[in-house]
């Protein structure tokens, strides 16, 4: 998504329930004019319409008995009002252009049943895989054992456009082995980077490594207790001056000792701990970009000028942590609320994370 989702405030639904319980005059479909069908509903209007539909369904014994089994019909007024209100709320959350009741009805009438059926099949397969995870956790807890890995219990499931061997349209496959050089696969969300700390600027590091190699969209970088750079809505633009500094000029990072940073990407609710190891001598043919991302350097790579957390030659065992650098989060993902309470984060960052 181009913009982060914006949840609907609970107060909007509280006010909607209060309005529906009163006279209901503020509900769009009960307007005395006929223009409500072409009007684009606000968050509050869509919430009132949705709440009114739920109240009407439960207040009628005939429809109340059909809850959970009611069939959608675009010509059923209450069904169409419910769908239009719900889609309007979802559009507001994800910054999608909101459709009026009239336009939403036209879209619903043009949905191809085959697409809906395929989506339903895929959604069902996703639920089945999720149930496998929950069943394994329950069985492990009851049996007082460690849960088996996802690779042992779950499968990729492919829905093919054309039948595969055996005239099969649904084909499972085994999950790949964990890539220990991938910070998403690693158990502690850690990524080692070998680079010339004394010559590489933060701006170069952000573009070539964080964004191009690690897939970070909007990096927010903490080093020791200092916020050195951030992107996104409400970011501190004064920190852009740090982009011109070399990594060695940033807090807790030196050529002799290496360094580390915690990189958060709130667009993806993602955290990664980046450990920096200094390496100045590179084989230009093997490493034209003059950096290496991974736990260990390949065999045959010179390590005489590679220094890690303790200032000694780093032989690529991947076990050395950056000295003096506070790691703000365990694991690779956390919520914005958890991020906002991390030790060492500034009040401004905590406010953005909330």
From TrEMBL:
One of its GO terms (molecular function) is ATP binding. Residues 296-309 have a biased composition (Low complexity). Residues 296-354 are annotated as: Disordered. Keywords: ATP-binding, Nucleotide-binding, Ubl conjugation pathway. Residues 45-105 form the Ubiquitin-activating enzyme SCCH domain. Residues 329-339 have a biased composition (Basic and acidic residues). Gene3D superfamilies: Ubiquitin activating enzymes (Uba3). Chain: B, domain 2, Ubiquitin-like 2 activating enzyme e1b. Chain: B, domain 3. Pfam families: UAE_UbL, UBA_E1_SCCH. The keyword Transport does not apply. InterPro entries: UAE_UbL_dom, Ub_act_enz_dom_a_sf, UBA_E1_SCCH, Ubiquitin-activating_enz. Belongs to the ubiquitin-activating E1 family. This is Uncharacterized protein.
